Amino acid sequence: AGVVKAEDYTLPAYVDRRDVPLPEVAFVRELSAPQKALKEKEKASWSALSVDEKVELYRMKFNETYAEMNKGTNEWKTILGGVLFFLGFTGLILIWQKHFMYGPIPHTFSDEWLAAQTKRMLDMRVNPVEGISAQWDYDNNEWKK
């Protein structure tokens, strides 16, 4: 039936890495008949080999060239798109909350209320040593210069 062949992790494995230029084993482990013939031809002079044969020999040993390994991926576009999507979604939630959940701004935030509160604090002489009352000139009814 369906028997799964387990990977033997005690044996060396092929990995394309830029910092390890020569992997422990060749990319193609089991050679076909034409590949075996090409390996025999490799033992002779390399000038007798064509460019295609040299490329085929390289591809038997390595899966990717350095140019292919160094080639950038487009994964950054997916990540940037996801980040921007979630930022936009969060902005929509904040707009919805401001519109439907929060009440009106309290009347104590109005300029008139703040002015009256400041006047009340000055009349009560709140914090006269270093605070707001220390900055007010009570003789001239204005802020000290």
UniProtKB/TrEMBL annotation:
Locate the transmembrane regions by residue number: 78-96
> What are its GO biological-process terms?
mitochondrial electron transport, cytochrome c to oxygen
User: What InterPro entries is this protein classified in?
Assistant: Cyt_c_oxidase_su4, Cyt_c_oxidase_su4_fam, Cyt_c_oxidase_su4_sf
The pathway entry for this protein reads as: Energy metabolism; oxidative phosphorylation
GO CC terms, sorted: mitochondrial inner membrane; respiratory chain complex IV
Where can this protein be found?
Mitochondrion inner membrane
Q: Which UniProt keywords apply?
A: Membrane, Mitochondrion, Mitochondrion inner membrane, Transmembrane, Transmembrane helix
Q: Which Gene3D superfamilies match?
A: Cytochrome c oxidase subunit IV (1.10.442.10)
What topology does the record note for this protein and the membrane? Answer: Single-pass membrane protein
Q: What role is this protein assigned?
A: Component of the cytochrome c oxidase, the last enzyme in the mitochondrial electron transport chain which drives oxidative phosphorylation.
Entry similarity comment: Belongs to the cytochrome c oxidase IV family.
Relate the assembly described in the record: Component of the cytochrome c oxidase (complex IV, CIV), a multisubunit enzyme composed of 14 subunits.
Stated name of the protein: Cytochrome c oxidase subunit 4
- Species of origin reads Oenanthe oenanthe (Northern wheatear)
What lineage is this protein's organism placed in? Eukaryota, Metazoa, Chordata, Craniata, Vertebrata
